Prior knowledge:
8-stranded parallel barrel, globular, about 325 residues, 8 strands, alpha/beta, 14 helices, single chain, TIM Barrel
Amino acid sequence: MNxxxxxxxxFILGFTLALISAPAGAASSADTFKKPMTxxxxxxxxxxxxxxxxxxxxxxxxxxxxxxxxxxxxALKYDIKVFNMTGGNSKYEWLSYDEIKAATRTFVEAxxxxxxTITCAHKFWNARAIDYAKYAEGLxxxxxxxxxxxxxxxDMPAYFQAIADNSRLAIALxxxxxxxxxxxxxxxxxxxxxxxxxxxxxxIFLEAKFADRLRVYGGGTTYRFLAAEPYGAxxxxxxxxxxxxxxxxxxxxxxxxxxxxxxxxxxxxxxxPLVDNFSLPFFHGTLEYFGLGxxxxxxxxxxxxxxxxxxxxxxFESRGLYPRK
Length: 325
């Protein structure tokens, strides 16, 4: 087909004007050059430690996008390959929808093509869940973690199917005690290929029953992974991937080398003490200690005091953990 020079010029001009006039927060296929992957390809690549985005705030209470970029850059430096937004760590309850979308953009763009990105639709109603999945796909995300609103389990397949019908993203379930019958119905949807599970017993049972169809990953810490690994677990949240990714890398390399003794020792030295001390003020204070962000939270959440910051400093220094550039 022959197209005149004038027609080509008008097309280029129109495309340029469309890009210039697009809203700042809008996603489009022009925003990313990342090659889309199928849900199955995503599942096969979902392996190793997972970074979970903790939404940081400035002293003025604004979402700290520079801090998000800094944390992700640091994790990538130590070969963290999977990045996940969640309703909890990412503070969805404390963010507006526009802030969630802006944080999603920063998150996906900071990772780029250097890792897998799992965005999050957390208790969104149908239209918003679909809108968010489309938005995340337009940014170049690989998957969306979905927690339904409080609806009967028999209504969940239709909810997930609507998301799958309107997006090419892989879908990760956030399990909240779903019945096995419901899980099996959801697995009839091809896009559903992953699940986040916090409870060790359920983590093991799900791996034993669905490992060939569903990549289950544990939330929180590495000891959950060690418990489920004999049953097929391949991926897991590692809290140190956020704050001290060199520790997350060391653990994963020890596991890959078959050095389980070292893995157990690292759990005892790093994971369990951190769980024992964990609170939101403690963890956001940890971001400040490692130079990744500020300690601040939005009121009425309590921000760590100077005295608590000293305790945080002592906690990590006693384990030989200091900020790195």
